TrEMBL record:
<keyword id="KW-0472">Membrane</keyword>
<feature type="transmembrane region" description="Helical">
    <location>
        <begin position="371"/>
        <end position="394"/>
    </location>
</feature>
<feature type="transmembrane region" description="Helical">
    <location>
        <begin position="92"/>
        <end position="114"/>
    </location>
</feature>
<keyword id="KW-0812">Transmembrane</keyword>
<feature type="transmembrane region" description="Helical">
    <location>
        <begin position="126"/>
        <end position="143"/>
    </location>
</feature>
<feature type="transmembrane region" description="Helical">
    <location>
        <begin position="339"/>
        <end position="359"/>
    </location>
</feature>
<feature type="transmembrane region" description="Helical">
    <location>
        <begin position="309"/>
        <end position="333"/>
    </location>
</feature>
<feature type="transmembrane region" description="Helical">
    <location>
        <begin position="400"/>
        <end position="419"/>
    </location>
</feature>
<feature type="transmembrane region" description="Helical">
    <location>
        <begin position="21"/>
        <end position="42"/>
    </location>
</feature>
<keyword id="KW-1133">Transmembrane helix</keyword>
<dbReference type="Pfam" id="PF13440">
    <property type="entry name" value="Polysacc_synt_3"/>
</dbReference>
<dbReference type="InterPro" id="IPR050833">
    <property type="entry name" value="Poly_Biosynth_Transport"/>
</dbReference>
<feature type="transmembrane region" description="Helical">
    <location>
        <begin position="48"/>
        <end position="72"/>
    </location>
</feature>
<feature type="transmembrane region" description="Helical">
    <location>
        <begin position="189"/>
        <end position="207"/>
    </location>
</feature>
<keyword id="KW-1003">Cell membrane</keyword>
<feature type="transmembrane region" description="Helical">
    <location>
        <begin position="164"/>
        <end position="183"/>
    </location>
</feature>
<dbReference type="GO" id="GO:0005886">
    <property type="term" value="C:plasma membrane"/>
</dbReference>
Length: 470
């Protein structure tokens, strides 16, 4: 296949994938805004802070299941498929799923039965809340197993449906709770579990259809996951474990240094920032880039141009969000007006995080797990030292400042390493990164044509569907 044809196929897959994810994300955001409105409006600030702390505890433990080695495994399965080695791809997938399910089962049992011990030190309500979230470890692990297959098969449309189903079910149940009962932290968590279960079950049939592609493929008999985990994968493993610990302990640091109400205030700011960040189209890159690994020079150009476009796009998104979102949010959530300055501080990190996302994807592509481990250790150190010191100096604003400071430090380190060690020496990286030339113009024209063509087809198919209705 020529480079032009490869460029076309990559661009087509990227546009199609990001459009599918973006469409479902948009619907999900609308419904998700309704969910947030109900939760924030009907829970007291202290109750909402407690809810966030329980979710943070769940995220802390679930981080030891599916996220571990995720980048390495997705990259290697994608490489196997790109090389036509379906037997090894299937073997690595099955090994990964088995290990994750066993780990999830153990953690769920420990949390369920260990809730009594926690309740002795706090109160019975905390023990009940922990029992409620215990099934989530298994449910989310099953979903992530299906999501992994959807990713490597580039079924981005199917993968994106889950979030919308989850939010719609959750919205219906929250509305029912408000009208027919009293919405408490307990009910909010029960609704979270039920919605997660239903959203996972919706994907069972599509998963079976996609898995059929491996029906006649006999998995290779050699064990793959242990070798990956013990070689280049070990760096990502230890790094991710440390990163999960420090990332999900942040709400608890806020509680320790300030109070539970401050957890809620910061969480609202971070939730709004998360919505804005989801407009940056990076979801499909982790699935598409491994297919470009054989052409080192081409991969380098994708890195540089992708970084440039994402940086420009994220700056534009941040500027618009900084002006538009705060007045609307204060109108909807007046008791969280204190969250808006935090949200605006967080927006500073958006271009930096986009910059870093490209670097992380390409470091994984080039199997630079050892360096990624070093980077994560730096992040872990920063996530411990900076929040503590900045919370002490600036209060809750310090946590938002830390986000940008850590992102900037890591982006500088990662990109510097890529330029020195992984880019082709003949590649004019400074010119590609900081200048706009004919190749940029051609790429953006192609991107526009592909996007417009995809949108027209979707609109046409939708109109045909409605016109065929009696």
């Amino acid at each position: 296949m020529s480079d032009l044809e490869r460029n076309y196929s990559f661009l087509r897959a990227y546009v199609k994938g990001e459009a599918a994810i973006g469409f479902w994300n948009m619907i999900g955001k609308i419904v998700g805004a309704g969910n947030a409105l109900i939760l924030i409006s009907h829970l007291e600030v202290f109750q909402y802070g407690t809810y966030i702390l329980i979710i943070a505890f769940y995220s802390l433990l679930s981080g030891f299941i599916s996220p571990i080695l995720q980048g390495v495994i997705l990259n290697d399965i994608g490489r196997f498929i790109g090389e036509g080695n379906e037997a090894s791809a299937k073997r690595l997938y099955l090994e990964t799923v088995c290990v994750r399910l066993c780990t999830a089962l153990i953690i769920a049992i420990v949390v369920f039965w260990g809730a009594d011990i926690v309740a002795q030190y706090y109160d019975e309500d905390i023990g009940l809340l922990l029992r409620i979230i215990a099934p989530l470890f298994i449910i989310d692990t099953i979903y992530n197993a299906m999501k992994l297959l959807f990713q490597v098969r580039l079924r981005f449309h199917t993968m994106s449906v889950r979030a919308v189903v989850y939010r719609i079910v959750r919205f219906v149940l929250l509305v029912a709770a408000v009208f027919f009962s009293t919405l408490t932290v307990t009910e909010a968590l029960v609704i979270h579990v039920i919605a997660t279960l239903i959203a996972m079950l919706v994907l069972v049939l599509p998963f079976r259809n996609v898995y059929r592609e491996w029906k006649k493929v006999i998995a290779t008999p050699q064990w793959l996951l242990p070798r990956i985990a013990m070689t280049y994968g070990k760096w990502q493993f230890f790094g991710q474990v440390s990163s999960q610990l420090t990332s999900n302990i942040r709400p608890w640091l806020i509680k320790f240094f300030i109070n539970t109400e401050a957890v809620a205030v910061y969480s609202v700011a971070e939730s709004l920032f998360g919505v804005v960040k989801s407009f940056i189209p990076t979801e499909t890159l982790v699935s598409l880039l491994p297919r470009e690994a054989r052409n080192h020079e081409r991969a380098g150009r994708l890195l540089l141009r992708g970084t440039k476009y994402l940086a420009i796009g994220s700056i534009a998104v941040a500027l618009v969000a900084g002006v538009v979102v705060p007045p609307i949010a204060v109108l909807l959530f007046p008791k969280y007006a204190a969250s808006m300055p935090l949200f605006q501080i967080l927006l500073i990190s958006l271009p930096i995080l986009s910059f870093r996302a490209m670097a992380t994807n390409f470091l994984t592509l080039f199997r630079e797990q050892k360096f990624l481990f070093v980077s994560l250790m730096i992040k872990v150190a920063a996530n411990i030292i900076l929040p503590v010191s900045l919370l002490y100096l600036f209060g809750i604003s310090g946590m938002a400042i830390e986000r940008s400071a850590t992102a900037l430090l890591l982006a500088f380190i990662m990109y510097g390493y890529l330029v020195r060690h992984n880019l082709d020496a003949s590649l004019p990286w400074a010119r590609i990164l900081f200048h706009f030339d004919n190749e940029d113009k051609q790429f953006l024209q192609n991107l526009y044509r592909r996007s417009a063509s995809y949108a027209r087809r979707k609109i046409y198919n939708t109109m045909r569907l409605f016109s065929s209705q009696p």
